[in-house]
Amino acid sequence: MIRTLIITGALALSATLAQAEEPIVGNWKTVAGDTAVIASCGGSYCITLKTGKYAGRKIGTLAGAGGSYTGEITDPSNDKTYSGSGTIDGNALKMKGCVLAILCKSQTWTRL
To answer: Are 84 and 60 in contact, with CB atoms under 8 Å apart?
Structure first.
């Protein structure tokens, strides 16, 4: 009886931890049509391109929770890094990069 309770509790805990993953984690299709993978790394979320001309390149790090994230985003075409943010709305991730917090560009990625 106790062994069954321990096993059931462990399974419930592992299911809860799996459900606790942030909505930003996963594969995203960028505006350019490339696939970007966002994964947990060192207490934040790393963005790495998996396909396209810059495949394998890390292009950003964001931190946050509950669908709202901030950090840095690098444009791989010119190697410039911007203060950035990401906001999740369903299967859409609105990415925003800014210079001096006033000159900003946005694009929306879709979940794969």
So the answer is: yes
